[in-house]
Prior knowledge:
The protein contains 19 helices and ten strands. By secondary structure, it is α/β, with parallel strands linked by helices.
Amino acid sequence: MEKAERKEKRxxxxxxxxxxxxxxxxxxxxxxxxxxxxFLLYAAFFAGQCIQKVQIVVLPKFLLDELMLVLGGGAxxxxxxxxxxxxxxxxxxNLFSNILTNIAGSVRSVWEEWFNxxxxxxxxxxxxxxxxxxxxxxxxxxxxxxxxxxxSWYSGGVVGILNSVYDMLLNVTVIAGVGVIIxxxxxxxxxxxxxxxxxMTLLNAKNNRLETEVYAELAKSNRIxxxxxxxxxxxxxxxxxxxxxxxxxxxxxAEAINEEITGTWRRLGKGQTRYSWGMDIxxxxxDGISYFYIGLxxxxxxxxxxxxxxxxxxxxxxxxxxxxxTFAWMDIAKRCNYANQxxxxxxxxAALEKGSREVTGETHxxxxxxxxxxxxxxxxxxxxxxNLKISSGEHLSVVGLxxxxxxxxxxxxxxLYDVTExxxxxxxxxxxxxxxxxxxxxxxxxxxxFKLFAFTLRENIAFGExxxxxxxxxxxxxxxxxxxxxxxxxxxxxxxxxxxxxHGTELSGGQQQKTAxxxxxYRDAPIVILDEPTAALDPVAExxxxxxxxxxxxxxxxxxxxxRLSSCKFCDRIAVFADNTIKEYGTHDELAGKKDGIYAExxxxxxxxxxxxxx
Length: 615
Ligand code: ADP
């Protein structure tokens, strides 16, 4: 192996150990904080299973010794009474330990579910709070899905990991217990069992390696086969398949890959048979040698018949215990490494610098100073040298063709992303200095792709617990949705969509828009922004909505975005975005009169829509 490769392997092992320590600490702390009774549960399991082991390994020895004494001509009544006592004890303990472990088992599965939901909620909470920029970062999204899979399914969550830790402790206890017995009665069993375990682990590791290899091969072949199969059965490929006569070629390719897959499975089967034969032989030798040795001890009367039975049971428990310990350790390492993905997600570095300054005052000025921006992982500037001042109470219309950077401009203003160059000032202060929470309160935005949730109408507008119905009705009226909302089956309590409630309502496109607008008005923020939530409407309907919204907004600062000119006539200023920057800026009259101006041209083309409606 290359030196570099060895070093990498060592580093990986170190990283894995670190993950195990971290995850174990986190899981134990979480379990202790949230459900300390879980430890009591494991204590009950431990007690139950230790009792079971005593009853399997130790008690039969005493029973057999009593019986042998009877057979050997001892005082029948006394030994028989003892024997009956041992039988009762074995039966009683068996029953007791079974009841204990069954009860603990069913409570444990309830906690298992509880913890799965606990972590999912934690994950969702974190995903909702992480910087918006991460929602478009493939690396962050991958980490989220690794975290999701890692915390529940693959690692088994708190309970899965505690189970493995518990298995380790139980096996250590069992090994120690039967170890003492073996040491004093049949010490040579130790090397026999250890050698068997070593050989079994070796064979098992080879088997695992073969499986991993084969599955990697199969993943590729299956993907290729899936592609042919998909094309063969997908009607949307029908034209190409028929017109280019490609069905036969596809079938042949699918058959060839199918042959390959079958060959790989055959290779796996052969290898597995070889290793399982090897394991069977090791097992048989181990048992044969152990029995021979213990039998010899018994025949030469160095141990009693009871000891013989105890040694046989101890040998089996020792082997199972050592095997269980190795598996439990491998299991912990595997589970912790999966669960570590969850911790990595929780610690995913923030994309934005966090400020702490509070926003004060009622009126706010906004200033863009030489702002340039390119999206993360992109080389191209979407906005360049943007300079703009928006006074408090001003109504600004932002226009430009699709892709000109209008939405990006709003995203920067709302600080969903940080600028690449220059700065944005609100009330003369760089917006990075404000606390995120305080800063976001300044804005009520209705984006083009606004989303309503499968909650009630009230919750969609007011979100929080202290919804003020009077105010909701007021904003519904302003948004022109009050009358319609009254007709909904359960008024404000009507569920939107049918995801969770079969009586849920599917609002029409226009009603959804009005709800989104009502939500923005309810927020009562000093700066309101409409980012083309009306793009699906025709120009006239869009114009009407913008005009009505402008009346509702009153003295607040308002920014309207459109690639049409719906909002321009009633706005104080217009900013025309083109070629990644603000190309024209001024009032409607100034821009409309500009010779060869972009706005003047747009207006001339689109004027027909607005002539009758503009008042
Ligand atoms: P507009 O709102 O004027 O239609 P946008 O601000 O949505 O324009 O987009 C401006 C440019 O930025 C477009 O070229 C678009 O492809 C690009 N863009 C938008 N969003 C992203 C993103 N999340 N990542 C990378 N590029 C983006």
